[in-house]
Amino acid sequence: MPVFFRWLDERLDLVRAKRELLDREVPDRLTWWHTLGSATLTVFVVQVITGTVLATYYSASPDHAYDSIQFVTREVASGSLLRGIHHWGASAMVVLILAHMIRVFSVGAYKYPREINWLLGVGLFIIVMGFSFTGYLLPWDQKAYWATAVGTNIAGTTPLVGGALVALLRGGSELGTATLARFYAFHVLWLPLSLTILVALHITVVVRQGIAARPRDLEAGAPKTTRDPAYPSYYRAAYAASKRGGVRFWPDILGKDAIVSAATVLLLVLLAVAFGAPLESPADPTDTSYIPRPEWYFLPIYQLLKLVPGSLEAAIAVGVPTILFLVLVGLPFFDRGSTRNLLHRPLALVGLAVLLGGAGFLIGAAGRAPAPTSEAGATLTSVQRAGRALYQSQQCGGCHRIAGQGGEEGPDLTTVGFRHSVGWLHSFVEQPSRFHEASRMPAYGPPALSHQEIEELAQYLATLRGREPTPAVPPQFYDTFPPPRRP
Amino acid sequence: MATQTPGVVSTGRRAFLRWATAIGGAASALLAGVPALRAFLSPTFRHKREEKWIRLGEVDQFDPEVPTKVDFVDAVHDAWVETRRLRNVWIYTADGETFRVYNGRCTHLGCNYFLDEEKHVFRCPCHTGFFEIKSGEVLGGPPPRPLDTLEVKVEDGILYCRYQDFHLGVADKAEA
Question: Angle, to 10 degrees, between the axis of helix A115-137 and the axis of helix A191-209?
Answer without folding.
Answer: 160
